[in-house]
Design goal:
With 595 residues, this protein is α/β, with parallel strands linked by helices. It is 53% helix and 10% strand. The chain has 22 helices and 13 strands. It has helices at 6-22, 55-58, 62-72, 92-103, 134-152, 168-180, 186-189, 193-217, 222-225, 230-243, 247-271, 281-297, 332-346, 361-373, 407-424, 434-451, 463-467, 474-491, 509-519, 521-530, 535-554, 563-586, and strands at 47-50, 78-82, 85-89, 118-122, 156-163, 277-280, 302-303, 309-312, 320-324, 351-357, 382-387, 390-391, 459-460. The protein has a five-stranded parallel β-sheet with strand order 6-5-4-10-11, with helices on both faces. It has a three-stranded antiparallel β-sheet with strand order 1-3-2, covered by helices on one side. Strands 7-8-9 form a three-stranded antiparallel β-sheet, with helices on one face. α6 packs across α8 (193-217), α15 crosses α16 and α18 (474-491) packs across α21 (535-554). Bound molecules: arginine (ARG). Arginine binds next to α13 and β10.
Amino acid sequence: MYDYKEPYKELIAEAINTLLSEAGISEKINTQQVIAENPPNPQMGDIGFPMFNFAKMLKKGPPQIAQITAEKLKGKGNFEAQGPYVNIKMDRSKTANEILNEVFKDNFGRPDTMAGKKVMIEFSSPNTNKPLHLGHLRNDVLGESISRIIKACGAQVRKVCIINDRGIHICKSMLAYKEYGQGKTPESEKVKSDRFVGDWYVTFSKNLKKETDELITSGIDKDKAEAQTESMKKAQEMLRKWEAGDSETVELWKQMNNWAIEGMKKTYERTGISFDIYNFESETYKLGKDEVLKGLEKGIFYKQEDGAVAVDLSDEKLDKKILLRSDGTSIYITQDFGTAIQRYNDWKFDKLIYVVGSEQQYHFKVLFIILEKLGYSWAKDLFHLSYGMVNLPEGKMKSREGTVVDADDLIDSLKDMALSEIREKGREEDVGDPNEVAEKIALGALHYFLLQPSPVKDMLFDPKESLSFTGDTGPYLQYMGARISSMLRKAGDSYGKEKENDFSLLITDPEWELIKIISSYPAVISEAAENLDPSKAAGFLYELSKSFSRFYHECPILNCEDKELSKARLELSRAVMLVLKDAFNLVCIPFLDVM
Ligand code: ARG
């Protein structure tokens, strides 16, 4: 990976090694042990090398080491000792040329740190009884962005989504539809098809609550009331019928699932999320069940008195865990054994990442331990990327149920807000298709906001703040991109093209700072990949945009008197745009040519 600091690090390492051997010490250091920092202000130099790490081996204080190291480096560059640091003022002209020529190469921002790795990544993974909600939006953009980032680092990536399409939850929607919805379809009701299914789930839940409350009033124990309702009994009966393959039940199940999945796919398409493979719980739960029975035979699991199959995890300091119900039906974790095994058999991954909320930490801990107990050597390559909750500010945009907010509704309202902003600013004529632009601003706002905190953190999604055109937001970044794009259009294709680019003129502080930030892009991407953390890329985008903004204000570009300098600055802007566009794609922010 290209790093302009590398030759200077090498010089420092060489000098330290000379000092070591002069002192008769056999120890040697390598270039990786040399740390390079940004001095607090540009007057001090362009790179600062702290000497603290060499104090012990040289048996000298860092300031003294800085002195003698700078001495050794005389004639090899503009090195200077300052306190415990050796700073260097670089040849900015030379380095600017070097860096910017790298940036215009195709493989810039494509470090090969994950080359040869096969990484499977599971994300989104909805249940078919409800439309996608705000939590899924965070999950989706994390999964998609991480996929793009690790792919940029050379990994082979397979994006998978498991649809939990069987079980009691979908029977609940089916039951309500069967009782009250005969003949109705998403088309007849003019509702998006996943919402249509979700609405029947809501109907079921309301009835269930009413019945439960009635039973409680009549004196039945709170914990037991729900299980004794007619609704719950019917739902369970339906699940049994489904497992037995009853054709009418299976037909209805197919119909409802198709509606749900078809609707969700529209949301994925709208937000730019895609998968290489869909797994369906209905197709893997039997394999999971077989695995549990095999484990029982091998004595890894045991049968309880009531007939349920369980595993004792006290050695791992965890509770016992039920793996099959007493009536032989499978539970949530059962399918996960089957799904994981099928995935590995299909594609021998080096790593499988599950992007799933932090409330399922226990689930994945148990899953991984059990797969290991079952003897799957690849169990060690499974990783739960546990991300935090996302909430809305109190009182804003509650869903129909007052708990979670549907993904579609949220994006619609962001889009409406963006559209009125466009109208208020009188930009309708300029932007081309205001609807399309508003949708892209909405997605930029949403995705950037969701990726800013590190994944593990809980967060509050503030729609209004996310849409602000100033500050650390998606639209601010998009605005920066549009500004450069319009400047390049204005300059025209032929601007200054008759000569080779000479970037050596770019030596002022704002130019140099901007160039340095651009040059850090590959390292930022590989760090984001290593940590599975797109917030690193998001943070980089903000730094880059801020730095461009400073450059734009302090350095005249098209109006610059010196034509050569004007052209170099324009090309620097083009480099910024290249990197912006590339990084936008990695964090799922749409690029806009006008805004
Ligand atoms: N559908 C599940 C839910 O909504 C999440 C599935 C996570 N993935 C898995 N392999 N268990 O809670």
